[in-house]
Specification:
Layout: E1 2-6, H1 10-23, E2 28-32, E3 48-52, H2 57-70, E4 75-79, H3 85-94, E5 98-100, H4 106-117, E6 122-123, H5 125-138, H6 145-155, H7 160-167, H8 171-184, H9 190-200
Parallel strand pairs: 1-2, 1-3, 3-4, 4-5, 5-6
Amino acid sequence: MRILLISESFIVREAVGALFTKNLKVTSIGIISDLYSMKKEDLEEINFIFLDMKENLPEKIMFLNTVKGKYGNIKIITLDLNKDIKIFKRVVDMGVEGYIVDIDDKEEFIYTMNRVFKGKKVYAADALQAVVQRDKSNNLSVLTPRERDVLYNISKGYNNKEIAKILYISDYTVKKHVSSILSKLNLKNRQEAIIYVNENKFEIIS
């Protein structure tokens, strides 16, 4: 396996390079400080790229697009110490095999690399959680104004009969709205709806 390690940080280059050669038994590794130090034809001999996303993000995003578009057999893992969720979503959309946000634990790093080597995709758990939370927040747009009113009153702990009285609609209509809200927001019950509102801290009523 031929690996290309790219990072502006000499600490990352030395530390990760040592892990690849000493712990992962990689015998062929190229280590460069920036994309300009590499020739495009060099990619034809590469099987795996480790890319530090700390600096020059536009160039690196373009580079990733190029690699995934022309050299689909190359596996890529990105290191994003800034934990930028926008970068996470971009690299996932491009099909990058791995996204990590630190190298604090050697055994965890080795485990992650081995999984990617074997064709698995590995993404940092906290990044995934942040994306899920953000997407759940954005789901509010799928609710109608009346459903938002109902959700607001659910969050206040009112039952269907009380909500019907507040909004001047029938119990049956409230029940239909509750069912629709739970379905659209992928929630299981009223308790999850209350947690959803409290966690996302937004204004329900439009």
